[in-house]
Amino acid sequence: MTTDTNFTNTELGTDITTEDVRDGFELLDDWEERYGYIMDLGKKLPAFPDDERREENYVHGCQSQVWLIHWKDPESGRLYLLIDSDAMIVRGLAAIIMIALNGRTPEDLLAVDIEGLFEELDLMRHISPTRGNGLRAMVEQIRATAQQYT
Amino acid sequence: MNLEQVRADFPILEQEVNGKPLVYLDNAASAQKPQAVMDAMTQYFRETHSNVHRGAHSLGDRATALFEGARETVRSQINATSANEIIWTRGTTEGINLVANGFYRSLKQGDEILVSRMEHHANIVPWQMLAEATGATLKVIEVTADGDLDQQSFRDQLSERTKVFAITAVSNVLGTINPTQEMVATAKAVGAYTLVDGAQAIPHLGADVQALDCDFYVFSGHKLFGPTGIGVLYGREDLLNEWPVYQTGGEMIHRVSFEGTSFQKAPYRFEAGTPAIAEAIGLATAMRYLDDLGHDNLREAEAALGRRVDEWVADFPGLTRYGQAQNKVPVLSFWLEGLHPSDLGTLLDQQGIAIRTGHHCCMPLMEHFGIAGTARASFAFYNTVEEVDTFFQGLQRIQRLFTGK
Ligand SMILES: Cc1ncc(COP(=O)(O)O)c(C=O)c1O
């Protein structure tokens, strides 16, 4: 059973903020370091419950498998996400998305400029519609979910 | 063949990607175009373009002559008997759909369609739809652990019930060269119609449809160093003339009235609407270009690449190769321990190396190997042995940095 704490037990989007990610990227010189850093962020993704790896939680992308579930805290009204992927870079990018979006009210979430952030970090190609890695679909799905609650 | 000169014919290869010289190893997805193809198309647009088969003017006559000349080039390059056997399509996918469409009225319950597990989705789904609609059964030839077609499985499943036998000549994932000619002969002996998917074969092996003796042969221009949006369906002329029409409209009719319409003979009965004229000319130019280089020279250059790949693979810890067939074209499908193919693709791209990752439109084959996808490096004659080395050195670097090996 997936419980509330599955969702809230993470530093992504709470302790770790997009400011931290920006600062982190500033220190990196070359692609090796950049992708090493991205993959390390991926290791911070909270555990994804095995029994949630189901078809209905599957985000269809071409190259890697991505799962996404959410929970809305009835008290605070905030949305919490859990994301999983079998690819390390996708996990890292998902962590950046979580850092930007996790634990926000639907209105706040919808106001976040994810594309702007990815542009700034020079990662835009990873969430552009031309890359079939499911990240684009994931961002859209998160927004659609938030939209439902507004 | 002077490889340096040949490479100079492909201007796209002379560029940097992510600050590194481009190493293009995604040729099985789509091959690059020689300057001659671009020139032929540009010249056509600058000097000749007009609609074909209908003009009462000189430009139209010249465009038609070029267009029909292109058809004749294809005929001679694949050794068809008549140019009427060459139908322009959008590509392999459309060719297969055109043929499958012709069976909708004739196939019935109890009939069988035989394909293999290593088919591209383009040679599975149209048959699956056909089977669903007609009540026929889709049968599957299994693949061995090495990535060959299981000939026992083929013989077991072939019978008088087999009405269609549709098979790829070369696997886009494994590189396996199938014994297509023998299998076609065996299938014809039980009375099946035979279709050969030549999308991956023709860029490496060429095609001789009379030797193959199949009913239908399909391929795509863009994998054969020609343009996108054009491909060829070869069919035996007598068969084509009685084959049900596919798309209908202008160009393909003989006479139209509201009482009824009669259709042209092949090839025009299958070419409804204005065709891809410049693309047809471009494809013919590509085939002539390859012919000029000499098919034996191309094979030799590719074999050298294949040998270098084999040497690296033989001594590369953590690399699992899918497809160990004796007879194969230079394609390497693999998995590197500890790294998802999609990660590999991204990290190689950072080094200017272009490969493809994923299921390669062959999900049933992935299932056979119990994997979700592979990384695939596919080579063309314009690739160099140095590029093979760069690719494997790139893999080593990734392995060292990101898997701690
Ligand atoms: C064996 C095979 N068949 C069919 C196709 C489909 O070709 P196209 O997309 O050009 O129609 C491909 C392309 O990847 C292929 O490799």
UniProtKB/TrEMBL annotation, chain A:
<comment type="similarity">
    <text>Belongs to the SufE family.</text>
</comment>
<feature type="domain" description="Fe-S metabolism associated">
    <location>
        <begin position="24"/>
        <end position="144"/>
    </location>
</feature>
<dbReference type="InterPro" id="IPR003808">
    <property type="entry name" value="Fe-S_metab-assoc_dom"/>
</dbReference>
<protein>
    <submittedName>
        <fullName>Fe-S metabolism protein SufE</fullName>
    </submittedName>
</protein>
<dbReference type="Pfam" id="PF02657">
    <property type="entry name" value="SufE"/>
</dbReference>
Automatic annotation (TrEMBL), chain B:
<dbReference type="GO" id="GO:0006534">
    <property type="term" value="P:cysteine metabolic process"/>
</dbReference>
<keyword id="KW-0663">Pyridoxal phosphate</keyword>
<keyword id="KW-0808">Transferase</keyword>
<protein>
    <recommendedName>
        <fullName>Cysteine desulfurase</fullName>
        <ecNumber>2.8.1.7</ecNumber>
    </recommendedName>
</protein>
<dbReference type="GO" id="GO:0031071">
    <property type="term" value="F:cysteine desulfurase activity"/>
</dbReference>
<feature type="domain" description="Aminotransferase class V">
    <location>
        <begin position="23"/>
        <end position="391"/>
    </location>
</feature>
<comment type="similarity">
    <text>Belongs to the class-V pyridoxal-phosphate-dependent aminotransferase family. Csd subfamily.</text>
</comment>
<dbReference type="GO" id="GO:0030170">
    <property type="term" value="F:pyridoxal phosphate binding"/>
</dbReference>
<dbReference type="InterPro" id="IPR000192">
    <property type="entry name" value="Aminotrans_V_dom"/>
</dbReference>
<dbReference type="Pfam" id="PF00266">
    <property type="entry name" value="Aminotran_5"/>
</dbReference>
<dbReference type="InterPro" id="IPR015421">
    <property type="entry name" value="PyrdxlP-dep_Trfase_major"/>
</dbReference>
<dbReference type="InterPro" id="IPR020578">
    <property type="entry name" value="Aminotrans_V_PyrdxlP_BS"/>
</dbReference>
<comment type="function">
    <text>Catalyzes the removal of elemental sulfur and selenium atoms from L-cysteine, L-cystine, L-selenocysteine, and L-selenocystine to produce L-alanine.</text>
</comment>
<dbReference type="InterPro" id="IPR015422">
    <property type="entry name" value="PyrdxlP-dep_Trfase_small"/>
</dbReference>
<dbReference type="InterPro" id="IPR015424">
    <property type="entry name" value="PyrdxlP-dep_Trfase"/>
</dbReference>
<dbReference type="InterPro" id="IPR010970">
    <property type="entry name" value="Cys_dSase_SufS"/>
</dbReference>
